[in-house]
Specification:
This protein is mainly alpha-helical. It has two domains: 84 residues, no CATH class; 184 residues, no CATH class. Helix content is 43%, strand content 9%. Strands 1-2-5 form a three-stranded antiparallel sheet, with helices on one face. Strands 3-4 form a two-stranded antiparallel ribbon. The chain has a two-stranded antiparallel sheet with strand order 6-7. Strand 1 and strand 2 form a beta hairpin. The radius of gyration is 21 Å and the shape is globular.
């Protein structure tokens, strides 16, 4: 049982619980009945980190540049939404294989003044012309994942920018343009490639990266994969970010950037897509009600539909509440023996 004695103990316990929930979330991606050899993003190893405690604020991101940017913004305006926007823009540059303005996202924000959890839905949407045959080949049969994902066919309407604009309009403090400064500076002056990015490019997971064009030129300059400790610039991204910073998201969802997106997606040489300018201009991010449940004296909340992860995590927690997980070492054989079977009914409910 948890002993809620001191404020520090409560913070530590909450941190352990949060870490466990993050571990549960890591398995939220659906698994196909027959797993293919290739994955969207390969594992690059685990790194042990020291426990860190802060009385003011903390920024945790997948790359140090992004964490430092978020910390700088928090120091300027003391606003979590502002920091989140800046972190995302930097991640777009330094972790392009994982996170960027060309994709979708969900955001959970605690409104302290109203004591209310607000969740934002920036999930990407399919082209309006898409139907059940979108990922069928010329033979009428479903395509393999890797065949469907490379090229323009799998591209949906990105939601990240609209979601952050909506959140910033409601809760932001600093000017929108300020939140792009770090990403623009790094894109122009250069950033140091991380070992993780080097490994993922070298792993050759997505054959589309080596096809002729801007992607190959960027990740394989002079035919060689980028390497850790190499300094990389992205002046074209810097110009796009400057436009979005100055004009808002309309610069992305309309105008020249939108036209370039449609051109690239729908005229892909091997796998053309079906996006339209109307699809981009019609996109709107949404606010959704969160899903919540009690767990060992805590109210645990997550993103509701269209994300399945919140419900899946809560279902698993309701199973795990019957076991003494707080007394087990994280990722130990004992805890894995409890966690693994708890996944099955949660995923069975998610994928009937």
């Amino acid at each position: 049982m948890y002993k809620k004695t001191t404020q520090r103990a409560r913070l530590f316990t909450a941190g352990v619980l949060y870490a466990m929930i993050l571990a549960l979330l890591s398995s939220c991606s659906p698994t196909p009945p027959e797993r293919e050899d290739r994955d969207p993003e390969a594992a690059t190893g685990l790194t042990n980190q020291e426990e860190t405690v802060s009385d003011q604020y903390m920024v945790s991101a997948a790359n140090q540049y992004a964490s430092e940017s978020g910390s700088r913004i928090l120091a300027l305006g003391r606003n979590a939404i502002d920091a989140a926007v800046s972190v995302q823009m930097v991640l777009n540059l330094v972790e392009p294989q994982s996170s960027g303005i060309g994709g979708g996202a969900f955001l959970l924000y605690w409104d302290q003044s109203k004591k209310e959890l607000v969740t934002f839905d920036g999930r990407e949407t399919a082209p309006s012309s898409a139907d059940s045959t979108l990922f069928h080949g010329a033979d009428g049969k479903p395509m393999k994942w890797i065949e469907a994902v490379v090229g323009g066919r799998s591209v949906g309407v990105p939601g990240v920018l609209k979601m952050f604009e909506k959140a910033h309009t409601q809760y932001g403090n600093l000017p929108w343009a300020t939140l792009f400064e770090d990403a623009i500076k790094l894109a122009e002056k250069g950033f140091v490639v991380s070992p993780r990015l080097e490994k993922l490019v070298a792993a050759d997971i997505n054959p589309g990266m080596k096809r002729a064009g801007n992607t190959r030129d960027y990740f394989f300059p002079k035919g060689q994969a980028i390497q850790a400790e190499q300094t990389l610039t992205n002046p074209k991204l810097a110009e796009a970010l400057k436009m979005i910073a100055a004009q808002g998201t309309s610069a992305f969802y309309q105008g020249d950037i939108a036209k370039q997106i449609i051109q690239a997606v729908n005229n892909d040489r091997d796998n053309p897509g079906q996006l339209s300018l109307q699809d981009l201009s019609n996109y709107e991010a949404q606010t959704r009600p969160p899903v919540c449940a009690d767990y060992r004296g805590y109210k645990v909340c997550g993103m509701g539909p269209p994300s399945p992860c919140g419900l899946t995590v809560l279902q698993r927690l309701q199973i795990l509440i019957h076991f003494t997980l707080p007394n087990m070492e994280p990722l130990s054989t004992e805890s894995n023996h409890i966690n693994s079977p708890a996944m099955r009914p949660a995923f069975a409910a998610r994928h009937p």
